[in-house]
Amino acid sequence: MEFLEGLDPLLKSYWYIALPTSLFFLLQTILTFIGFGGADADVDMAEGHDVADAPFELFSLRNLINFLLGFSWTGISFYDSIENKTILIIISVAVGIVFIALFFILIKQILKLGEDNSFQFENTINQTATVYLTIPESKSGVGKVQISVKGSFHELQAMTEASEKIITGSLVKIKSVENNILIVDKL
Which stretches are transmembrane (predicted)? Predict the structure, then answer.
């Protein structure tokens, strides 16, 4: 810290902000990559708060760190280049805000990569399936169909309202779902 002794007070302030902020950012990044303190680590999980919105909290520790990183390192980098110190501070603040905006954009793009592949019976409606076990007529019993939903193969219970049974190997179209049983029609 001896190199800070002879510096101008504004430059010294930038350094006093940059060093601990950079250290904290580095520690925060390392902890995030090893699994401690994800995007929602600094968010108070109050009742009814959606975890998916956590990275988009405007006033959070993570956003403060991002702002201070942009602010301080811009001030240090352009201190000798920009003579007017008021303009330097304004540019530093603007770059700090840009850092927050870039973080929001980055997180939004990362969240787009997530895909919900959980099975839901509603995804089978209007799909075609193959009868695996004969389906009795007029909802008098339950048979089974095989169907692929979102790339995953499922064997599900099925019934038909038709007056004739649907034999194994027939193609059917799913009309609706009742109590997790598919209602089908022969194609």
Answer: 14-36, 64-82, 88-107
Identity at 81, one-letter amino acid code = S
Asked if the 121-186 domain carries CATH number 2.40.50.140, the reply is yes
- Token pair for 174: 């799913």
Predicted model pTM: 0.55
Say how far apart CA 167 and CA 57 lie, in whole Å. Answer: 56
**DSSP tag of 135:** B
Instruction: Give yes or no for a contact between 151 and 139, defined as CB atoms under 8 angstroms apart.
Output: no
Is residue 6 packed enough to be buried (19+ CB in 10 Å), middle (13-18) or exposed (0-12)?
A: exposed
Any idea where the domains of the chain sit in the sequence?
A: 2-112, 121-186
Burial of 55 (0-12, 13-18, 19+ CB in 10 A): buried
Q: Which residue has the tokens 């049974």?
A: 165
Distance of CA 17 to the CA centre of its chain: 31
CA atoms of 185 and 172, how far apart (whole Å): 5
- What does pLDDT average to in each consecutive run of 10 residues of the chain (187 residues)? 83 94 92 70 42 58 92 95 95 96 89 80 92 94 93 92 93 94 94
CA distance linking residue 125 with residue 156, whole number of Å: 13
